[in-house]
Structures are given as C-alpha cells and as structure tokens.
Amino acid sequence: MNSRLARSAGLIGVATMASRLLGIAREIVLARMFGASATPDMDAFNVAFRIPNLVRDLFAEGAMTAAFVPTFSRTLNGKGKEAAWRLGNLVINALLLVTGVIVVLGIVFAAPITRTITSADIVGDLLRMLGLAVQAPSPGGFASVPGKLELTTELTRIMMPFLTTVAVAVAMMGMLNSLHRFFLPALSPAMFNVVTILCAVGLAPLMPAFGLSPIFGIAIGTLLGGLGQIAIQWPTLRREGFRYRPTLNFRDPDVREILRLMGPGTLGLAAVQINVLVNTSLATTQPQGAVSWLQYAFRLMYLPIGLFGVSIATASLPDLSKHAGDSDRTAMRRTISNGLRLMLMLNVPATIGLIVLAQPIIELLFEYRRFNAHDTVATAAALMCYSPGLLGYSAVKIASPSFYSLRDSRTPAIVSVLSILLNLTLNIVLVRVMGYRGLALGTAIAALFNAGTLLFLLGRRLDGIEGRAVLVSFLKILVASLLMGAASYFVSMWLTRQVPSPEWYWRAVRVFGAIAAGIIVLAGAAHALSIEEFNDAVDRVRRQLRRR
C-alpha cells in the first residue's frame, strides 16, 4: 500500500470523522426537536435545503475540487505561489459573481421552484413518459398539508445565500489541499454542524417570540454555518501567503481551463446529488415523514462515505494529477488500485454493518421525544435500502477525479447522464412497488452502475487498474465482512432478549456489544484470509502507539 496515501487519508479521515460525527449530532438534535412525521417542519426544511445543499455537495466533494485542484497544483508547481494566488483570487471572484446571480434568482423564484419539486403532476408526467400507469399521490402527500408548501418557500429564500458561502469555502479548501494541508479543510464542515447545533439550542426556541416557527432558527443557523467554514480556513491560508484581491478575468487561460472542466465535470459528479433531488421530489408524494426518513437514513449512510470515500479520494487527487502530468500511467494505476483496495477494506464492512444493525442504531441515536418508534422502523428500512450503494458512492470519488486528472471530463459526464436516467427509471418504478423504500434502493443500484461503468472505462484508458488484485481483495473482504455481519446480528438479537429495556444506555450496550463482536470476528477473518489491507492498517496503528 502507498504509505503516503494511507497517512494522508488517515489525517483527512480524522478531521472528516469529527465533521461527520457532528453531522450526526446535528441530526440527533433536529430529530428530538422536530421528529419526522409528527410535524411538517422537518419535511419542509429538508426540501428547502435540498436546493442549496445540492450545489454544496457538487462543489465541496465534486466538480470544483476535481477541476480546480489539478489546475491550481500545476500553476503552483510550474509558476510558483504568486501565480497560484492570482489564480485563486480569479476563481473566488468568479464564484462570487456566478453564485451571487444564482442566489438572487433562487430567492426571486423560490415559490415556483418549490412547487415544481413537490408537484405530484411532475411525477405523473414522468410516469406517462415511461409508459406507466399514473398512480395518484398518497393522501398524506406534501401539498395536502396546509401551510407546508409556503413554509418550504420561505425557508428556501433564507438558505439560498448558503451557495455563495460554500463556493468560497471550497475554493479555499482546494488551495490548502494543493499545498498538502488536508486536516483543516476536512475539518471546516464541522463548523457548519457546530453553528447549526448552537442555533438549534439557542436561536430556534426564540423564534416563536417573533411569530415564526422554531425551524426558522435552523435555517438561519445553516447560513451562519456556511460563513463559519470560511472563517476557520482563512487564517491558515493567510499564513501561507494568500491575500484577497478583487480581480476578475474570465479570459485567463487557467480560469477557462477550470470552467471547461467544471461544466461537464459538474454533470460527471452530479449523479448522486441529482438522484437525491429526484428522490426528494418523489418522496413528497408519500405520507408525511417520508422526506425526513430518507434524509436521516442518507445522513447515516453518508458517514462512511465522508470518513473513507472522500478522505481517500482527496488524498489521491494531488498524486493522480502529478502522475498524469508526468504521463506515468504505471504510477496512476498503482495509486488508483491502492485507493480502491483501501476503500473496499473500510466500506464493505460498513455496508454490511449498516444493513444488519440499521434499526438498533437508529433507535439508539434518534428515538426520543418527537421521533417515535414508527419513525425508527421507517428510517431503518430506508437505510437498509441505501446501504448497498455505499461502495458505488465511494468508488466514484476515486474514479471521476482520475478522469479529470487525464483532462477527460466527457467520459464521467456521459456515464453520469446514463446513471441519472437509470436512477430515474428505477425510482419511478420502485416507488410504486415499495413506496419511499424503493427510492433508496433505486439510488443505490444507480450508484453501483455509475461506479462500475467508470472503473471499467478507466481500466481500458489506463490499460488496467490492477483489476485482479482489486477483485481478490474484494472477495476476501466480502467473506470477512459477511462473517462479521452474522456475528453482529446474532449478538444483537441475544442482547435484545437479555436486556430489552428502552433506556438509552441499554440501547447503547446492545449496539456497541454487537459492533464489538463484529470487529473481533472481522479481525480474525482478515488474519485467516491474509487480507493485506487490514494487516497494514493494524501495523500502522501499532507503530504509532510505539512512537508515543
């Protein structure tokens, strides 16, 4: 395994773990305050946030990073810091202008946008286009709840400026990553979650005094959280020598190169987020709470992606860019193979674990106050259906930037379009058969298709990506993970019979007892099967402990 990649991924993973855990804490706070199906507030908030959040995900973990980092790195290595800082200023100012226009349009047209997303007529039109019989939306659909659509529109207007704050934050993140400063940029999303939690505790309870729902406090916290992501990175960037200058030049060759890559690049990495947007629209035709059930489940499923998929991809990108610039395909194949095998070692057990322990985990984290037992069962069902796509989501984080390093943004764009069409077709069909659960399953299948197709084409482009080694590792890891899952399941059932108490500490005993049993079995199976990736990780931890 590439030791530098593993060290960088580990450093990013630590910071990202803090951010993702705080994200889960944020969801726990919101679940306790607003529940899922008890009130319309969380459904309205999740639909309203989907629009700016879509762009955030595309920028923060997508096209902006994939297009900007290689270009900025080439400028930094070839022309020096001054030229790189000039490029950084040009990109930041271009983003301020473009996202500012989008924000204004989003605020002005918030009402028709939310009506479109939540329209049952749109769903019916999609069904008819595919030659399917139109099924009437559920009586508990989004628009049938008085005031829910209007609340969503107002929340959308408040949160639209989040786009601009996150665009600037991600440009700063890209510059710091190019300087091989990974920890702080990976930690910056934690500021978003911290500020949101503080606003949930301190600001939301004050909203009724102004005649507003407490959920407006969460919307304001979202906007302030975006500013927090800028604030935490700015001092480090200044210490590196960056100074902001209000310069703008869309004709600059490097800016045009970034924009050229970002155009199809955004589409190339957009599959997951556009599919989630489609899910949100279709979920609004389901009973109240469906939007929130899917959101809570997706947040839990996205935890391993943030910890493992994004961290590995972020650590790989500068090396991939360098190897591509040197036309060293052997080194590219090795870097991609190492990243994929490390990703599999971390994400295959995570996938099995989420499927097996979905309900106990959600019960432990969320089932308090307004989040009831019905919400737990419904969210667990969504999580189980989302989980198989975890491997696809993580693999795309490695595969797509590999194409961009080769200055090929067309291939991932085409594959992404096919993935989106497949997801749309599957979801429209499955939602009629399985309800909101079909939306999660369709998205997972489409994510696997997206990743598999990209890796196949990448292998052809590079004359292989050490596919045999990756396949052997995957099969070994899968066997070990299935044994782990079986151990976790039976221990969880046994502990439930022994201590059926609903108290949170007994819930924790059941969950962590099952996880501990699974880890022990996974370690034993990995040793018996001689899984190189697992042994390398254990040896690395031992060396660190000996040094300390």
Short description:
It is built from 22 helices and no strands.
Using brief descriptors, characterize the structure shown.
548 residues, mainly alpha, 2 domains, 22 helices, 81% helix
Taking the sheet with the most strands, its summary is: none
- Runs in which pLDDT lies below 50 for 5 or more consecutive residues are 132-140
Q: Calculate the mean pLDDT score and round it.
A: 81
How widely separated are the two ends?
A: 23 Å
Structural class: mainly alpha
What's the total number of strands? 0
Rg, please? 23 Å
User: What is the helix content?
Assistant: over 70%
How much beta, percentage-wise? under 5%
Shape: globular
When the domains are counted, the total is: 2
What count of helical segments does DSSP give? 22
Order of helices and strands: HHHHHHHHHHHHHHHHHHHHHH
Structural account:
This protein folds into two domains: 19-32 and 40-465, no CATH class; 466-548, no CATH class. Helices cover 81% and strands 0% of the residues. By secondary structure, it is mainly α. The protein contains 22 helices and no strands. It has helices spanning 3-34, 41-60, 63-79, 81-108, 110-117, 120-129, 148-159, 162-178, 183-202, 215-239, 253-268, 271-283, 290-325, 329-356, 358-366, 373-386, 390-405, 410-434, 436-461, 467-498, 504-528, 532-547. It is globular, with a radius of gyration of 23 Å.
